[in-house]
Amino acid sequence: MTATAQPATLSQDQVEELCAFACKLADAAAEVTLDYFRQPMGVDDKDKGDGFDPVTKADQGAERVIRALIEEHYPDHGIFGEEFGVKAAEGPFEWVLDPVDGTRAFISGLPTWGTLIALRHHGEPVIGVIDQPYLKERYLGWPDGATLNGTPISTRACPSLDKATLSSTDPYLFKDAERARFDTLLQETRLVRYGLDCYAYAVMAAGHMDVVVESGLKPYDMMALIPVIRGAGGCATNWEGEAPGDCGRLVAMGDPTLLGQVLDILKD
């Protein structure tokens, strides 16, 4: 491929095949996570005393079964998982996995965690699954649409920030200038909800909230969210209006007309 050539797009047959496989991965993960949710379990700390970053056998077991299925069915595909790292791709496809996004919610018995499964094609997230198996809600997104349990979903219209519902996992995750910008944005919106992890993006895609803002994210925290949001009619960028990436700053909107208003506040 030349420097100016664009990667080939996926055919409709490929999209359907890979969406079905992503759902198969979510089914396998759910069999593991539901065995542990709201049950006594051990919790390890990945930070080892420098903060608290919990991990459980549910996180690890769910990622193991997902990785095993990918390696069985698509051995040339890459894998980037939160718990077990990177397997290099032998082609344009890479699966990005967060087996339990919202482990703090998981160990607290709150059903706002989810399994995040994304497929990147030439680095672009093209298929995403946000699966909340306890609530039996599966959000699936691809370039041309998004569904909740197979029913098409769409974001809602909200052309003005003063009518918007905003969400973020925790305001204390924003540091220094980030916190000042977030607080300014907060003052412009009508309502805020905290602590929802990936579930905030899911309900926004289904038309119930308007803006989600985060910082400090890793690719496995973000990639599955993006196809769901975009497929439902929303948009997702970093705080500069560019493709979300290594900076870890994500802003998503159900109504893309809000983008300029939000970026005017958040961008450097």
TrEMBL record:
Pathway it works in: Amino-acid biosynthesis; L-histidine biosynthesis; L-histidine from 5-phospho-alpha-D-ribose 1-diphosphate: step 8/9
Cofactor(s) needed: Mg(2+)
InterPro entries named among the record's database cross-references: His_9_proposed (IPR011809), Inositol_monoP_metal-BS (IPR020583), Inositol_monoP_superfamily (IPR051090), Inositol_monophosphatase-like (IPR000760)
Keywords: Amino-acid biosynthesis, Histidine biosynthesis, Hydrolase, Magnesium, Metal-binding
Principal EC category: hydrolase
CDD domains: Bacterial_IMPase_like_1 (cd01641)
Residue numbers binding Mg(2+): 82, 98, 101, 221
UniProt cross-references to Pfam families, sorted A to Z: Inositol_P (PF00459)
Example GO BP: L-histidine biosynthetic process
Coiled-coil features, chain-numbered ranges: none
UniProt xrefs under SUPFAM superfamilies: Carbohydrate phosphatase (SSF56655)
Catalytic reactions on record: L-histidinol phosphate + H2O = L-histidinol + phosphate
Enzyme Commission (EC) number: 3.1.3.15
GO molecular function: histidinol-phosphatase activity; metal ion binding
Family stated for the protein in its record: Belongs to the inositol monophosphatase superfamily.
The protein's name in its UniProt record: Histidinol-phosphatase
Source organism (scientific name): Kordiimonas lacus
